[in-house]
Design goal:
With about 375 residues, the chain is an alpha+beta fold. It contains 12 helices and 10 strands. Helix 3 packs antiparallel against helix 5, helix 8 runs antiparallel to helix 9 and helix 11 runs antiparallel to helix 12.
Length: about 375
């Protein structure tokens, strides 16, 4: 059954629920005014009387509307109605990374590196705009039909230049991807998002997050326990890749990579062509992908004939060929010399060589006949 949104001239028809959380519901909707499908995120009706929650919801929509990045969801329209606040955004018709992990299991390191590059670009862009996402996780990253990764759900994002709307002692974020400082209720800066990217990388590589269990157990793990060793869970993973993830999962924010891009770069650097655990690197966009092969050695060290022996054999072969050619040329020159005695066959060959004019052809034939008579006599 189709439901009509009362507000903004009733231009949206909601047709299906795409997802639902404690704070909001995301609908698949049709924009009759522009004739396109959108995703409509509406605040839960029982939360609309709470002015602080409405303010947080409005902050999310306003923050998203100011952003423009290929790996961040685009906002189209905002309704600040006290009775039914919502905003519309692009509809990503595809699964989340969490869906892909559930369906396919652990992802290859090369694919993880590509995902980290895209998401790190989005996270660093957010930080440059003064926004901390605070909930980067597989369930909040959608994949469209072209394979583009899109970061979603800014419901707990915080502006760096404000004191935030978080109540004292309250926690915002998902325990699965919560940084130690978030667990302790401390202000979350850019390192919190880098920690979450480390959790995501671990999740993609192994098919599970580093800490599992009930909420208390997961939060305790993030706060005080070291993450499981990737080298034990994934023995074939290059050591440099595992070290990059470990650095992102450091308990102290200052010990993590300075930027999300630095983390993605460190992970990708571990996928060297010499490593047997990973395929060769993908060529950059616009490159033909043709590799330049190293020069091939003629003689392998420690085996085969010495190089000087091969050189002597080669020179000998050339000398033999040269002697044969010189002998043939000398014979031809002698045969072409007038008055030189020759057999009838040689005379015929000479006739073809010197190509006599027609008046000399009869003389050549007569000479050959005389020589033939002499030899027979």
């Amino acid at each position: 059954q189709r439901m009509n949104v009362n507000g903004n001239a009733g231009r949206y028809d909601m047709t299906a629920v795409l997802g639902e959380g404690g704070m909001a519901t995301v609908w698949r909707a049709y924009d009759r005014q522009l004739g396109r499908e959108v995703a409509l995120k509406a605040l839960q009706p029982h939360l609309t009387p709470d002015a602080e929650i409405r303010a947080r919801f409005a902050a999310e929509s306003s923050a998203l509307a100011s952003l423009s990045h290929p790996n961040i969801v685009r906002v189209y329209d905002i309704s600040a109605s006290d009775r039914f606040p919502y905003f519309t955004m692009e509809l990503i018709d595809g699964p989340s990374l969490a869906d892909i992990i559930r369906r396919d299991g652990p992802q290859p390191p090369r694919r993880v590196a590509e995902a980290l590059w895209a998401l790190a670009s989005a996270v660093d862009y957010l930080h440059a705009m003064g926004i901390i996402h605070r909930d980067v996780k597989a369930a909040n990253i959608m994949v469209d039909r072209d394979g583009r990764l899109v970061l979603m759900d800014f419901g707990v994002a915080r502006m760096l230049d404000t004191s935030g709307r978080t109540r004292a002692g309250s926690l915002l974020g998902t325990p699965e991807a919560m940084s130690p400082e978030q667990v302790y209720g401390q202000p979350a800066g850019p390192p919190a998002d880098i920690y979450a990217l480390g959790v995501l990388a671990f999740h993609l590589l192994t098919g599970r997050p580093p800490f599992e269990g009930d909420t208390a157990k997961v939060m305790h793990g993030h706060a005080v326990e070291p993450p499981p060793s990737l080298r034990l869970v994934y023995p074939s993973l290059p050591a440099a890749c595992a070290a990059a993830v470990d650095a992102a999962l450091a308990k102290q924010p200052e010990q993590r990579p300075a930027t999300a891009g630095a983390f993605a770069q460190a992970f990708a650097a571990g996928l060297a062509p010499a490593s047997p655990a990973v395929p060769p690197p993908l060529p950059p966009a616009g490159d033909s992908g043709t590799a330049i092969a190293p020069p091939r050695q003629i003689v392998e060290s420690g085996g085969g004939a010495p190089a000087w022996a091969l050189a002597v054999l080669a020179l000998s072969a050339l000398a033999m060929i040269a002697s044969v050619v010189i002998g043939m040329m000398a014979s031809l020159i002698i045969m072409a010399t007038p008055g030189f005695p020759m057999s009838p066959d040689d005379a015929m060959m000479r006739a073809h060589m010197v190509r006599p004019p027609p008046e000399r052809a009869i003389a050549v034939i007569s000479t050959a006949a005389s020589l033939e008579d002499t030899r027979n006599g």
